[in-house]
């Protein structure tokens, strides 16, 4: 089971202009875990993700994927294992049609044309976008773009799925769709986000970054209950927990705001503890 | 600065036309590209006083527009935008070429006027087939066809990237300009200083985007070689008939002045 | 300015097409050999950027008119010669297809005029020579303006040669050249200033962008490259000139002979009136030329016997032309009626 673990040891990254984006970051993620990496803008989340498939190389420290220490020689292997979905789908969808985009990874892996086709259709099926396959990416809506971007990575059958702010800029319906399809991915998931409601639903574990350092690492609920911590890291409790009678009995209502969840009746308590 | 949205919308519309599914759209792109090439070569090979012999060539754009249901007004508008550019040069012909080559009643017509008219017809014909080619085929598919016809892969890839990001960047550009216009309180045009920083910003953002795209390509196993599946177009009998038929017609029309013959018949029967 | 299909002859267009295609092949191979694969998306996106930048106008101080970036030199500075050439070519190709800007046959001319000169001449031989080893902002600005002016002068020279060699336009070489070079002197300065402004901005905001590519670029291979470039240019020029005589000889020669006899027979045609016509900018001169009574110029109709034949043909040509137009129009309408559901069969 330890085959698809992700381990980061004492990772430091300094950009050429001197910005210290990551400072002594360490954690270990096991197979099948779903982990959120949260933190304010500029906390270093994206920088961290870019180390996981070797796009950026550490100034010091190391990254281990499965049992291999990430190095120049095994980049291809690692990139096949770790699939990254970037924040702006326009950066990820660069081919003339959705089909070509989803086929890009499998073709680079050297698969035969027929296998590529099956992979593409499967991946598009997972994100419910098969009917979009002949469309050019600039004719897609924001939510469609995001789902297709995820498919471009799923088609490579990664063991570890990494997503940078997957629900950023989506309307509620598109956000729900993306969350549902992430829910269905059963391998290791690493997600960065400001969308703490999504984190609450999708990730049992959360790592909090602040100024390139790990401020907390633990069960999502514990971390979200710790208001001082969230506040210190310029984050805010998820809406679902703000008026929750179970999680925060002291604060039934936020002043001036109607409670999202009626205070009585366990039937409304739609998240798990 | 005002026309930007217009230019861009126009671009999108042409792109959308190419997504239709008529029989002409489905034709293998190579047939359309080669037929267009034959058309252009025939038209421009006429000497400069030719007018009547070029007119039958209008048949090709007319039939394609009609048969595929392309919006005639739209294509006409696009052609009208282009013609002035040819006219800028053509209008000098009457100035420098004053050889009288025919009389219509009292009026002597100079060679320059005839060749100027010829330039206008050339411009109309060549512009219309270029636009129709795109509207019936779509840019990426034309690229694929050209690649099959021998265009270097690196250039094809460059064209595809350019095309893909025109949509993203013009959007971004339009937003930036609009923001700038909102703050410039109705003054038209940008000052040089504003221009430098606006375009410079846009350039830096573009640069960053290129880096992110590269990142996304690497993340999916890109190693310098571009693989494409591409639709496996067949050059079948339909294509052969289309290309052969039209090209033969173009060449015959190039060799024989059809209107002349037709007019001769007509004039002859009158007298 | 762009060459247009309407002004180009097949020989000139074909020769320039071949030249540009060869250059594209050369640059693609070049890119493949010394592959900096980071450039693959960069070139494409910068092409799209130029496209966008071209629709952003600025006001030219003290003139009331406006200008915009051409982008050729900017691309050369950012990407180096080969990559810049491919990028410019791709921009021109999209313009030719989507806006029928220039046209498909003239594309070869345009790629050469607007791509070759900035990327393979002005950038390596002028810009890089002028900025020296440790470029500062002011030397960059100067070098940019000079390089832009030179590349536009050469480009417009290309347009003049190609137009005259094609023989569709009646513009005489000397006048056309004078007009084009002086207009493009102004355009070149505007282009240079616009490019320099952007370069200066980048230099201040993120100097490493300018260094990265241009420092890495000119490693070895320069002699070979410029040799090849010179060869190609020579080939293009000779091709153009030769094909002028080869293809359009009867027509072109007949025409120029007619013009020579005209000016020889009427030496006073060189007097002020004629001069006025040569200063083409003025619309009034052009207009007076048009309405001038025919007798005053004294056209020697009898000198043009091949022309006589044309006259005979022109009447039937006119009638036939009208009929043809009507037929085209009718066929169009018929096709449309019949082709609503299917479409293809109607074309034959
Ligand atoms: N290419 C870069 N060069 C220099 N500094 C950078 C670069 N990219 C990001 N940074 C800096 O690194 C820090 C972390 O950025 P990032 O990882 O993007 O944060 P997040 O994704 O959490 O918002 C920020 O201070 C940011 O300004
Ligand atoms: Mg980020």
Molecular structure report:
The complex is a heterotrimer of chains A (273), B (271) and C (348). Chain A is an alpha/beta fold. In chain A, 34% of the residues lie in helices and 22% in strands. In chain A, strands 6-7-8-3-9-10 form a 6-stranded mixed beta sheet, sandwiched between helices. Chain A has a 4-stranded antiparallel beta sheet with strand order 2-1-4-5, with helices on one face. In chain A, helix 5 (113-126) crosses helix 6 (142-154). The two termini of chain A are 26 Å apart. The mean pLDDT of chain B is 86. Chain B contains 12 helices and 2 strands. In chain B, strand 1 (100-104) and strand 2 (107-110) form a beta hairpin. Chain B has 2 domains: 1-150 and 232-258, no CATH class; 152-221, no CATH class. Chain B is globular, with a radius of gyration of 24 Å. Chain B is mainly alpha-helical. In chain C, 75% of the residues lie in helices and 1% in strands. Chain C has a single domain, classed as Arp2/3 complex 21 kDa subunit ARPC3 (Orthogonal Bundle). Chain C has a two-stranded antiparallel ribbon. In chain C, strand 1 (58-59) and strand 2 (66-67) form a beta hairpin. The interface between B and C is large, with 140 and 126 residues. Bound molecules: adenosine-5'-diphosphate (ADP) and magnesium ion. Adenosine-5'-diphosphate binds at residues 15, 17, 19, 21, 39, 41-47 of chain A.
Task: Provide a quick synopsis of the model.
The complex is a heterotrimer of chains A (273), B (271) and C (348). Chain A is an alpha/beta fold.
Please describe the topology of this protein.
The complex is a heterotrimer of chains A (273), B (271) and C (348).
Chain A: E1 6-14, E2 20-29, E3 34-38, H1 45-52, E4 60-65, E5 68-69, H2 75-81, E6 82-85, H3 89-92, H4 98-108, H5 113-126, H6 142-154, E7 160-164, H7 172-183, E8 188-193, H8 196-202, E9 205-210, E10 213-219, H9 220-225, H10 227-232, H11 239-242
Parallel strand pairs in A: 3-8, 3-9, 6-7, 7-8
Antiparallel strand pairs in A: 1-2, 1-4, 4-5, 9-10
Helix pairs in contact in A: 4-5, 4-6, 5-6, 6-7
Chain B: H1 4-17, H2 23-26, H3 29-44, H4 59-68, H5 72-90, H6 93-96, E1 100-104, E2 107-110, H7 111-137, H8 139-148, H9 153-183, H10 192-219, H11 237-255, H12 258-270
Antiparallel strand pairs in B: 1-2
Chain C: H1 10-33, H2 39-53, E1 58-59, E2 66-67, H3 72-79, H4 81-98, H5 107-131, H6 137-166, H7 173-205, H8 207-216, H9 222-265, H10 272-278, H11 283-291, H12 294-297, H13 305-339
Antiparallel strand pairs in C: 1-2
Bound molecules: adenosine-5'-diphosphate and magnesium ion.
């Amino acid at each position: 089971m330890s085959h698809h673990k992700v381990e980061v040891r004492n990772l430091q990254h300094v950009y050429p202009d001197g910005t210290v984006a990551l400072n002594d970051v360490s954690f270990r993620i096991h197979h099948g875990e779903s982990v959120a990496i949260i933190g304010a803008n500029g906390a270093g989340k994206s920088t961290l993700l870019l180390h996981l498939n070797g796009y950026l190389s550490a100034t010091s420290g190391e990254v281990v994927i499965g049992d291999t220490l990430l190095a120049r020689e095994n980049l291809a292997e690692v990139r096949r294992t770790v699939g990254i979905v970037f924040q702006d789908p326009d950066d990820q969808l660069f081919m003339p049609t959705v089909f070509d985009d989803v086929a890009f990874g499998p073709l680079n892996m050297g698969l035969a044309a027929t296998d590529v086709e099956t992979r593409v259709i499967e991946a598009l099926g997972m994100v419910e976008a098969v009917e979009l396959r002949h469309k050019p990416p600039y004719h897609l809506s924001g939510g469609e773009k995001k789902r297709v971007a995820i498919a471009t990575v799923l088609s490579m059958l990664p063991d570890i799925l990494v997503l940078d702010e997957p629900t950023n800029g989506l309307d509620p319906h598109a956000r729900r769709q993306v969350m549902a399809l992430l829910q269905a991915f059963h391998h290791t998931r690493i997600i960065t986000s400001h969308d703490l409601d999504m984190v609450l639903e999708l990730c049992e574990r959360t790592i909090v970054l602040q100024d390139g350092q790990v401020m907390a690492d633990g069960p999502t609920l514990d971390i979200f209950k710790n208001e001082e911590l969230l506040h210190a890291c310029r984050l805010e409790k998820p809406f679902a927990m703000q008026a929750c009678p179970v999680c925060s009995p002291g604060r039934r209502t936020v002043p001036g705001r109607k409670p999202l969840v009626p205070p009585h009746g366990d039937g409304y308590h739609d998240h798990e503890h | 600065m005002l026309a930007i949205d217009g230019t861009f919308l126009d671009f999108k519309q042409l792109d959308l036309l190419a997504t239709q599914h008529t029989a002409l759209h489905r034709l293998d792109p190579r047939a359309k590209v080669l037929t267009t090439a034959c058309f252009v070569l025939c038209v421009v090979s006429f000497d400069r006083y030719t007018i009547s012999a070029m007119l039958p060539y209008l048949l090709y754009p007319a039939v394609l527009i009609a048969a595929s249901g392309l919006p005639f007004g739209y294509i006409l508008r696009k052609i009208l935008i282009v013609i002035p550019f040819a006219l800028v040069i053509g209008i000098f012909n009457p100035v420098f070429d004053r050889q009288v080559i025919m009389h219509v009643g009292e009026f002597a017509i100079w060679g320059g006027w005839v060749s100027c008219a010829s330039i206008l017809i050339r411009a109309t014909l060549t512009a219309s087939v270029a636009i129709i080619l795109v509207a019936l085929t779509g840019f990426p598919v034309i690229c694929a066809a050209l690649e099959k016809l021998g265009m270097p892969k690196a250039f094809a890839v460059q064209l595809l990237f350019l095309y893909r990001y025109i949509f993203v960047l013009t959007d971004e550009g339009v937003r930036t300009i609009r923001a700038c216009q909102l703050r410039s309180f109705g003054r038209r045009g940008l000052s040089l200083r504003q221009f430098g920083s606006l375009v410079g910003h846009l350039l830096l953002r573009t640069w960053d985007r290129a880096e992110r795209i590269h990142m996304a390509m690497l993340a999916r196993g890109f190693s310098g070689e571009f693989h494409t599946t591409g639709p496996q177009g067949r050059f079948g009998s339909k294509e052969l008939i289309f290309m052969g038929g039209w090209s033969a017609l173009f060449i015959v029309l190039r060799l024989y002045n059809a209107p002349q013959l037709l007019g001769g018949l007509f004039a002859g029967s009158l007298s | 300015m762009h060459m247009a299909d309407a002004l180009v002859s097949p020989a000139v267009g074909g020769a320039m097409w071949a030249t540009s295609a060869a250059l594209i092949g050369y640059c693609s191979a070049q890119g493949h050999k010394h592959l900096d694969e980071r450039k693959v998306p960069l070139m494409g996106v910068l092409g799209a950027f130029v496209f966008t930048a071209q629709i952003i106008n600025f006001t030219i101080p003290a003139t009331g008119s406006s200008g915009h970036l051409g982008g050729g030199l900017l691309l050369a500075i950012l990407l180096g010669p080969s990559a810049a050439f491919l990028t410019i070519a791709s921009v021109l190709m999209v313009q030719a297809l989507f806006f029928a800007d220039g046209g498909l046959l003239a594309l070869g001319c345009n790629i050469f005029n607007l791509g070759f000169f900035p990327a393979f001449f002005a950038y390596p031989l002028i810009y890089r020579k002028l900025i020296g080893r440790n470029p500062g902002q002011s030397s960059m600005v100067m070098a940019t303006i000079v390089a832009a002016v030179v590349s536009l002068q050469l480009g417009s020279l290309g347009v003049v040669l190609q137009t005259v060699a094609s023989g569709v336009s009646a513009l005489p070489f000397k006048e056309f050249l004078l007009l084009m070079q002086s207009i493009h002197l102004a355009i070149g300065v505007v282009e240079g200033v616009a490019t320099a402004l952007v370069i200066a901005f980048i230099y201040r905001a993120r100097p490493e962008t300018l260094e990265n590519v241009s420092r890495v670029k000119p490693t070895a291979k320069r002699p070979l490259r410029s040799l090849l470039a010179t060869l190609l240019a020579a080939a293009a020029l000779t091709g153009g000139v030769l094909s002028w005589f080869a293809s359009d000889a009867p027509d072109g020669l007949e025409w120029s002979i007619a013009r020579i006899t005209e000016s020889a027979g009427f030496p006073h045609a060189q007097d002020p009136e004629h001069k006025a016509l040569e200063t083409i900018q003025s619309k009034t001169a052009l207009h007076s030329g048009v309405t001038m009574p025919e007798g005053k110029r004294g056209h020697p109709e009898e000198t043009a016997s091949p022309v006589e034949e044309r006259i005979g043909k022109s009447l039937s040509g006119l009638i036939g032309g009208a009929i043809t137009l009507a037929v085209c129009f009718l066929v169009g309408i018929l096709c449309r009626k019949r082709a609503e559901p299917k479409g293809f069969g109607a074309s034959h």
